[in-house]
Amino acid sequence: MEREEFTRRLTVATRRLLALTRTYVIDALPDAVTFAPAMQPWEDLVPLAANTVVFAEDRGRFPEAPRRRCSPEELVALLWRDGRVPYWIDLVVVAVEGGRTLIEAEVSPRFTDDPAIVDGEDRPYLIKVRNNPPWVARRLPFGPVARFPLNWRDDPAAAQLVADPEAGSVSLRRLHLRRLLAAPGVRETFSEILDRLRSPPASDVVWRDPAELLEAIEEAERAMGEWDDAIREGSIDAVFFGEQVGPWARLLRRVVMVRAEQRGWMLREAMQSPHLHELLGLEIRGGEVDLRHVAHSRPVQKLRRLVLHDTPIADDEQAALVISKNLAGLVHLTLSRVHMPAVRLAEWLDGTPGRSLRELVLVGFAGEEHLAVLLARPALLGRLELLRLQDAALGEAQVLRLAECRTLANLRVLDLRSSAGSSYISGDAAAVLRAAPQFARTQVLLQKSG
Questions:
Q1: Strand 143-144 relative to strand 254-257: parallel, antiparallel, unpaired?
Q2: Residue 363 pairs with which residues in a beta bridge?
Q3: FRET label pair with 45: which of 24, 91, 195, 288, CA 20 to 30 Å apart?
Q4: Of 240, 308, 360, nearest in space to 295 by CA
């Protein structure tokens, strides 16, 4: 593992640990932290696995009493060993000292450079919270139903008398949401957060009042501000609660319209909802839906990604889409299995959808005339970072024209593969394409011929 990545994961794990611990304890925990590392020595009689080493000098590096104190930078310097890192590093908040949160770090004595062993968002760091006191009940899946003093074991009787300043203003449902927000930023976590916000609360686990729900959505927006947009997506069925777009839908960045032929009215309702005014991506798959709702929607004016799959585009819809200001900031456009003559593709590329385009995917219809439309627009080609012409009806002469197109120098990916698994490109043409100087840094994806 690179030192920069090891440092980044420590930063992320520390931030998550503080956020999680604050949902358990009453104490104010400063963002500034100090680490107190410890390591139990490895038993020499126990065999080591492959790609694993222990360092004999570690026996003197980790005094138990008192533990050494480290800044985050010093901890990285101590534990990163030329690409090798510990199998695991358990992090737990234990105190506040001198205006800094003290975090104990229990370190595995085994070090490895095998990526599979430390695979995961924060690994080798594992965040933990010490057990709650016996007078605080636990409830699945929420955990402790109330917060408690961090060092309650020092004087349990006195700790029971300490009041939580958030009591009455923060519900158990809100505490659970905050615990979810401290989890790794993956799609499963986002689904749980969305479910916590949109599902009707149990009778004994309710929001403090309707205003707390809106406060919780704002809190979630702030906490997930840096989460990947692809994680924050939903389907058209998830977007609607009953027949309304709930305020929690503000958290979505991409909505996937599935089986739209059965729910075409939902597209109209969704595009009119103020709760989707930050929507960045829209994917419509199949069905007779009126795409003019996308073109004319006032709340949806920040689209960056549009995918149309197996969706008929009528003349009036085409006319509205290619001049829509909603598509002026489009970065990604996929047109898949749609009826798209070359002259219509030219309208898309010359209209507002083509102004900022960086990624273009055409599936199932691109032919010689479509390629000619593309090659006639050098300004667009110079911006493109991804060009995918899947299941294209292109001859070898058209492939060689791509090899001659020097304006494609910024492409990261050129994908000419076929879903059928066969290739229309000969080995000689593939070699010419890959050898083209403008593709020296481009990932050229082709199927093997034959």
A1: unpaired
A2: 336, 390
A3: 91
A4: 308
- Please state, in angstroms and rounded to a whole number, the distance separating the CA atoms of residues 196 and 173: 8
Residue for token digits 């970072």? 385
DSSP structural state of residue 263? -
* Cα–Cα distance for residue pair 319/300, rounded to 1 Å: 18
- The reported pLDDT for the residue numbered 450 is 44
What do you get for the CA distance between the two ends of the chain, in Å? 40
Q: What is the pLDDT of residue 427?
A: 84
Smallest CA-to-CA distance from 75 within 65, 62, 57, 94 is with 62
Model pLDDT, residue 44: 66
Which residues, including other chains, have CB under 8 Å from residue 123's CB and lie 6 or more apart? 9, 88
Q: What is the mean pLDDT of each run of 10 residues along the chain (450 residues)?
A: 93 95 95 94 73 85 85 95 94 95 94 86 90 89 89 94 92 93 91 87 83 94 88 79 78 79 74 87 84 90 92 94 95 94 96 96 94 96 96 88 94 90 77 93 77
User: How far is residue 281's CA from residue 232's CA, in Å, rounded to a whole number?
Assistant: 10
Question: Of 287, 249, 288, nearest to 271 (Cα)?
Answer: 249
For residue 141, say if its preceding peptide bond is cis, omega within 30 degrees of 0: yes
Considering Cα of 286, then 289, then 292, then 295, what sign does the dihedral take?
Answer: negative
DSSP category for residue 116: T
**Sign of the dihedral defined by the CA atoms of residues 206, 209, 210, 212, in that order:** negative
CB 169 within 8 A of CB 175: no
* C-alpha dist (Å) from residue 271 to 61, 291, 307: 61, 10, 15
The Cα–Cα gap between 234 and 255 comes to 5
Copy the structure tokens of residue 32: 């500034």
CB atoms within 10 A of CB 432: 17
* 115: Cβ contacts below 8 Å, ≥ 6 apart: 1
Q: For 14, how many CA atoms within 13 A lie in the half-sphere containing its CB?
A: 24
Alpha carbon distance 156, 132 (integer Å): 11
Q: What share of the chain is helix, strand, coil (3-state, %, to 5)?
A: 35, 20, 45
Closest CA to 165 of 22, 59, 325: 22
Helices 187-198 and 172-181: crossing angle in degrees, nearest 10, is 160
The single residue listed with the structure tokens 């609360």 is 201
